Structure formats: structure tokens, C-alpha cells
């Protein structure tokens, strides 16, 4: 069981690293990774010009059991929105905000799918 958990965490970290590199390549600045507020966590908070983007990263080793983005449910969205609201208040952010999902499948090379405005 412990090895399954550590493998899951390793897979998630690999996916987050690929997602961050992807965003940097698209001209975003990474402000925070793994931002926590209460029980919620935002995988990546990025900025591009006057747009603040909260990114949920979902990673799978393959698409055998569905696409990674299918794992983002209503409960996860609600937790992400709560954490984002706190970050916005802390930073006194006054500009646009967007919520994205980056789906990473760890094939060779990795498949990265960026879903902008995934939810509100």
C-alpha cells in the first residue's frame, strides 16, 4: 500500500513539473505551486499579463482508465474556488481570474492538454 501511495505522489509530481514547464513555455509566470488553504490545494497559480490562473493538474500513467481531466469533480472545483478566493484576498488581486485544468498523460513524450476556463 505504501508503495502505491508513493508511486501516486511521484506520478502527480511529475505531472505538475510537466504542467509548470508547459505554462512557462506559453509565457506564463509561475507564482506558486502547491498553495494550501485549509484542506484545499491549488497545484499551480500562474500569471500572464493581468490574468491570474489557478490550475488543477491531473496526471495518469496512461489513458487506460479514462482521461486525467475526468477526475476533476464538483467537490474538487469547490475546494479550488475556496483556496483561490483566499489567495485573491491575500494578494488584493484586482484583475481577471481564470480556472484551468492541465491534463498530463505520462507517455513518451508526455501528452499535455490545457483546458482553459474549465470551470467558474
From TrEMBL:
**What's one GO MF term for it?**
endonuclease activity
The protein here is known as UPF0102 protein A3841_14080
Instruction: Tell me its family.
Output: Belongs to the UPF0102 family.
Q: Does the keyword Nuclease apply?
A: yes
Query: Which key words tag this protein in UniProt?
Result: Endonuclease, Hydrolase, Nuclease
Stored SUPFAM superfamilies: Restriction endonuclease-like (SSF52980)
**PANTHER family, from UniProt?**
UPF0102 PROTEIN YRAN
InterPro entries in the cross-refs:
Restrct_endonuc-II-like, tRNA_endonuc-like_dom_sf, UPF0102_YraN-like
Q: Which NCBIfam families match?
A: PRK12497.1-3 (NF009150), YraN family protein (TIGR00252)
Q: Name one Pfam family in it.
A: UPF0102
- In terms of domain of life, where is this protein from? Bacteria
Amino acid at each position: 500500500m505504501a508503495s502505491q501511495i508513493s508511486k501516486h505522489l511521484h506520478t502527480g509530481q511529475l505531472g505538475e513539473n510537466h504542467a509548470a514547464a508547459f505554462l512557462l513555455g506559453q509565457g506564463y509566470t509561475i507564482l506558486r505551486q502547491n498553495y494550501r488553504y485549509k484542506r484545499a490545494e491549488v497545484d499551480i497559480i500562474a500569471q500572464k499579463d493581468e490574468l491570474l490562473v489557478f490550475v488543477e493538474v491531473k496526471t495518469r500513467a496512461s489513458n487506460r482508465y479514462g482521461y486525467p481531466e475526468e477526475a476533476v469533480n464538483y467537490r474538487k472545483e469547490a475546494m479550488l474556488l475556496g483556496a483561490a478566493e483566499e489567495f485573491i484576498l491575500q494578494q488584493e488581486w484586482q484583475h481577471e481570474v481564470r480556472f484551468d485544468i492541465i491534463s498530463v498523460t505520462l507517455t513518451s513524450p508526455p501528452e499535455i492538454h490545457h483546458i482553459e476556463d474549465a470551470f467558474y
